[in-house]
């Protein structure tokens, strides 16, 4: 941290003369004391003017009351007076310091030519109130916030110009000024506004917070200022679809890093011009990070798809597993939308019995985020009371990383099934008994015809670990099987035109078909079982 | 021979399976199959058909009159099996090469000839161009009657 010292005087003079606001002046003098920036605008203005008035003997008399270690840089005599310009061609003549009294009487704040008002009006209590009003009316539940700000790209250009200006000035004193030495605009802005927001909202600012308040600033008046960069550094600007501007902040920053100083000064005024207007805050938005709810579901209907079944805008079957579960969660969490995923899935006409199938729902931008274990149980009961087609258990909040565990289950874990099988030729008990002795049966399954329109053609090797048969009559028996994840059971039973080999039909030397299928268990030990 | 020598099985997902129809000569008594050949021209073998991805890129495109294979019987006859529908060839049944018997024993299931996927826009018109089982039987009946009148 450093105080304003003698060496800063010409820089302060230079910047103040071109309508740079006091806080930007401090930034370019590398003053890093947060408290200073928080001082009221008027006071800072007064202090800087005082500083300029004081002559050499009264160093450090200005009310910057933080004790700092002495500046390590060499301090040279200030040899140039105001208005003395001897720079390279593109720099303008700086007018003499305007009368101090006249300046004080002029109460209207001129828009800063570097920050375009960000460190001026947008640090004031009025703006803070506006933001907090928006936050409070949006009715979110949160314990901290992160404030993110989107600045118009032309600010980077003006910053660059101001830096070149100050760098040259300091060069006259034999001092250097690296770009990184300057206090970043966004950083200074957050120093000032975070405590104010924090106080109004009653929660701390936290970079890792899931609750984000974001503001987008724009300055239409100077919107075209960056366009010259496209001709100077064409490869930094990639063509963009959707009518969006090619002059993104990132592209502009990249171009500024590349462009040579002389070229820059040819195309852009240094110091930057004074704008007529301040920036405007285009939008203030709130967003909560997603929450994840997991559980296991049972499916008792043979007429229910997992996801909505809609063809050409027409719904083919009423409702779906995901809608029946998510409907209530969406209402309670007051989310914008949801993403449903599960550890595998079953067909419309297949029931899911036993402990059920693990699922997880991502609730996007929820207004409510905290629920006790009791409340979750209550939610589970509500879902279960609302439908007899599905039931859920072990409903709980989980982290995003938990989804990975569930998907693991889909690829790796075994499933057990119960199938009701029909045969064309008669069977006796002895004819099916041998199935019970077959272990680790390897299958080659070509992509089933019934899904071939939406899946690539491939051959899958899958294993039937164990089987247990239950004779019913001459044309029916029940088969319990434990299989590797990803096995197509129906095709294993009827053979799918001979494209799954071996199959029950080929094993029994008959034509077989599957009448009913139930999932008996999904052998994944996630999510954790709760005492329901 | 009749244009109705093929039977198409379409599931609700637009996939078509080409099989021999009931009345096809090869399925009548006494015919023995001596060879099945998927090489339909010097440059084109249906066995070379390779598809990739969901949209089945690289598939040989078939029109109604595109030959799928040529089958010879022991009495010296050779039959060409045509696609009868427009679409991408997904696969031909290689099982009948190693086991020609299933072509005659289970013509509608394991003895299928080929799997074809019509273009999405054309799937409706393809379905409409086919006969139902009932309509097919009526046609056969008419044929029998007209031939017996000669």
TrEMBL record, chain A:
It catalyses: uridine(55) in tRNA = pseudouridine(55) in tRNA; uridine(54) in tRNA = pseudouridine(54) in tRNA. Gene3D superfamilies: 1.10.10.2050, 3.30.70.2510, 3.30.70.3190. GO terms for molecular function: metal ion binding; RNA binding; tRNA pseudouridine(55) synthase activity. GO terms for biological process: tRNA pseudouridine synthesis. It is found in: Cytoplasm; Mitochondrion; Nucleus. It holds the Pfam family Pus10_N_euk. Residues 112-286 form the Pus10 N-terminal eukaryotes domain. Keywords: Coiled coil, Cytoplasm, Isomerase, Metal-binding, Mitochondrion, Nucleus, tRNA processing, Zinc. One of its GO terms (cellular component) is mitochondrion. Its EC number is 5.4.99.25. InterPro entries: PsdUridine_synth_cat_dom_sf, Pus10-like, Pus10-like_C, Pus10_N_euk. Residues 292-523 form the Pus10-like C-terminal domain. The keyword Mitochondrion applies. Belongs to the pseudouridine synthase Pus10 family. This is tRNA pseudouridine synthase Pus10. It comes from Pterocles burchelli.
From TrEMBL, chain B:
It comes from Pterocles burchelli. Keywords: Cell projection, Nucleus. One of its GO terms (biological process) is dendrite morphogenesis. It comes from the Eukaryota. It is found in: Cell projection, Dendrite; Cell projection, Growth cone; Cell projection, Lamellipodium; Nucleus speckle. Pfam families: GCV_H. This is Protein Abitram. GO terms for molecular function: actin filament binding; actin monomer binding. One of its GO terms (cellular component) is lamellipodium. Belongs to the ABITRAM family. The gene is Fam206a. InterPro entries: Abitram, GCV_H/Fam206, Single_hybrid_motif. Transmembrane segments: none annotated.
């Amino acid at each position: 941290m450093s105080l304003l010292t003698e060496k800063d005087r010409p820089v302060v003079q230079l910047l103040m003369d071109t309508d740079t606001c006091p806080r930007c002046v401090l930034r370019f003098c590398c003053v890093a004391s947060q408290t200073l920036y928080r001082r009221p605008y008027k006071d800072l203005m007064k202090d800087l003017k005082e500083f300029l008035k004081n002559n050499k003997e009264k160093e450090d008399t200005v009310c910057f009351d933080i004790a700092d270690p002495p500046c390590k840089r060499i301090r040279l005599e200030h040899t140039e007076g105001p208005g003395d310009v001897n720079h390279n061609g593109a720099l303008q003549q700086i007018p003499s310091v305007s009368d101090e009294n006249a300046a004080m009487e002029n109460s209207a704040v001129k828009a800063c030519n570097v920050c375009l008002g960000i460190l001026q009006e947008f640090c004031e209590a009025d703006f803070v109130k506006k933001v907090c009003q928006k936050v409070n009316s949006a009715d979110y539940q949160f314990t901290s916030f992160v404030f993110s700000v989107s600045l118009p790209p032309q600010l980077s250009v003006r910053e660059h110009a101001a830096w070149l200006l100050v760098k040259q000035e300091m060069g006259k004193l034999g001092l250097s000024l690296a770009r990184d030495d300057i206090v970043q605009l966004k950083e200074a802005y957050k120093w000032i506004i975070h405590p104010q927001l924090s106080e109004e909202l009653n929660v701390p600012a936290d970079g890792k917070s899931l609750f984000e308040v974001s503001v987008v600033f724009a300055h239409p008046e100077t919107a075209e200022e960056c366009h010259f960069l496209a001709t100077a550094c064409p490869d930094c600007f990639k063509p963009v679809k959707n009518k969006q501007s090619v002059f993104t902040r990132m592209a502009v920053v990249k171009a500024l890093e590349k462009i040579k100083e002389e070229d820059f000064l040819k195309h852009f005024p240094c110091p930057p011009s004074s704008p007529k207007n301040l920036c405007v805050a285009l939008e203030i938005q709130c967003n909560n990070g997603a929450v994840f709810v997991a559980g296991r579901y049972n499916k008792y209907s043979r007429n229910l798809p997992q996801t909505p079944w809609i063809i050409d805008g027409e719904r083919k079957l009423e409702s779906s597993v995901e809608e029946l579960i998510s409907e209530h969660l969406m209402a309670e969490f007051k989310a914008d939308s949801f993403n449903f995923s599960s550890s595998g899935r079953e067909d419309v006409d297949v029931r899911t019995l036993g402990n059920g199938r693990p699922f997880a729902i991502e609730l996007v931008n929820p207004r409510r985020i905290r629920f006790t274990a009791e409340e979750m149980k209550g939610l589970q009961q509500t879902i279960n009371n609302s439908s007899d087609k599905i039931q859920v258990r072990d409903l709980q909040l989980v982290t995003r990383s938990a989804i990975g565990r569930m998907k693991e289950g889909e690829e790796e874990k075994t499933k057990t099934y119960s199938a009701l099988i029909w045969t064309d030729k008669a069977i006796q008990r002895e004819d099916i008994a041998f199935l019970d002795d077959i272990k680790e049966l390897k299958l080659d399954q070509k992509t089933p015809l019934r899904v071939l329109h939406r899946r690539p053609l491939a051959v899958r090797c899958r294993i039937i670990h164990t089987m247990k048969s239950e004779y019913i009559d001459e044309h029916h028996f029940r088969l319990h099987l434990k299989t590797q994840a990803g096995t197509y059971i129906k095709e294993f039973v009827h053979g799918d035109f001979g494209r799954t080999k071996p199959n029950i039909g080929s094993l029994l030397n008959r034509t077989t078909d599957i009448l009913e299928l139930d999932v008996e268990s999904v052998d994944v030990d996630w999510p954790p079982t709760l005492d329901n | 021979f009749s244009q109705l020598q093929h039977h198409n099985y379409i599931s609700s997902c637009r996939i078509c399976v080409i099989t021999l129809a009931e009345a096809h000569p090869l399925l009548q008594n006494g015919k023995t199959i001596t060879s099945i050949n998927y090489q339909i021209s010097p440059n084109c073998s249906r066995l070379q058909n390779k598809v990739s991805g969901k949209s089945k890129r690289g598939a040989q495109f078939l029109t109604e009159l595109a030959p799928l294979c040529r089958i010879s019987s022991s009495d010296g006859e050779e039959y060409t099996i045509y696609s009868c529908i427009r679409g991408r060839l997904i696969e031909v049944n290689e099982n009948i090469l190693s086991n020609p018997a299933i072509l005659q024993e289970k013509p509608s299931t394991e003895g299928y000839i080929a799997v074809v996927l019509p273009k999405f826009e054309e799937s409706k018109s393809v379905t409409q161009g086919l006969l139902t089982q009932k309509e097919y039987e009526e046609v056969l009946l008419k044929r029998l009657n007209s031939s017996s009148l000669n």
